[in-house]
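in:
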């Protein structure tokens, strides 16, 4: 069974003299179409807008394999883009670097996040080799996550919180976590003091991607400000939240 194809296309525009309109294919111009090509080669237009907007939606659907799931994701992203032109960041007031931050949804800047490692969080991950694969622990990092793995559960600690809300970067690194198809993936957000709404939506989308791949997913070690943002946004079927990786392992690996 072939995977549905989600493509971006645009019909050419001509002026009154029948000549092609110059500049019509710039990414910020309107009239681009997001089209879903089904397994029977049928074409369904899902959305019309700028190439920039449609490309972001297309990227978020890259790992989806079913037409119904793709349609749902497109509608969710459309609602997100239409809801506001600004992006909200939850800030824990009272801290020395707290600030009100409002950035354009499609052209965000770095948020002011606290990179300090909270007490009790290990800074490095050791690699241990054992003959028995069932308790094998492996670790490493890809300059975005510090990764450890045990008994099939992959724990990814965000190394640099400033990069979590960078456009496309979080999505790119989240996709890499599914390589090798672990039993479970848990994101350790202990270093993140403030989180943009865009990042929360990316985490919800990634939860759906993991569900399709039959990979359990959860978050752990959330700070008070991040928990508050999740409560305020109230996403449908939010990711599971755990106190620490041990609690996540006990719950996710028993399924």
């Amino acid at each position: 069974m072939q995977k549905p194809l989600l493509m971006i296309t645009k019909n050419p525009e001509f002026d009154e003299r029948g000549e092609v309109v110059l500049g019509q294919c710039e990414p910020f111009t309107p009239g681009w179409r997001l089209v879903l090509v089904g397994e029977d080669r049928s074409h369904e237009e899902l959305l019309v807008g700028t190439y920039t907007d449609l490309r972001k939606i297309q990227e978020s659907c890259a790992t989806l394999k079913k037409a119904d799931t793709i349609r749902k994701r497109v509608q969710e992203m459309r609602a997100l883009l239409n809801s506001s032109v600004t992006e909200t960041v939850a800030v824990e007031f009272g801290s020395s670097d707290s600030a009100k931050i409002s950035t354009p949804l499609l052209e965000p800047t770095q948020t002011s996040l606290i990179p300090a490692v909270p007490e009790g969080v290990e800074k490095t991950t050791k690699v241990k080799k054992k003959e028995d694969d069932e308790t094998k622990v492996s670790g490493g990092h890809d300059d975005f996550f510090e990764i450890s793995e045990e008994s099939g559960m992959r724990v990814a600690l965000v190394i640099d919180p400033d990069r979590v809300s960078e456009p496309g970067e979080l999505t790119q690194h989240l996709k890499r976590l599914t390589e090798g198809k672990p039993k479970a993936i848990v994101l350790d957000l202990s270093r993140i003091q403030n989180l943009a709404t865009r990042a929360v939506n990316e985490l919800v989308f990634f939860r759906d991607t993991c569900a399709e791949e039959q990979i359990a997913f959860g978050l752990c070690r959330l700070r008070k400000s991040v928990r508050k943002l999740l409560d305020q946004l109230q996403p449908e079927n939010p990711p599971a939240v755990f106190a620490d990786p041990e609690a996540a392992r006990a719950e996710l690996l028993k399924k």
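note: DSSP finds six helices and twelve strands in the chain.
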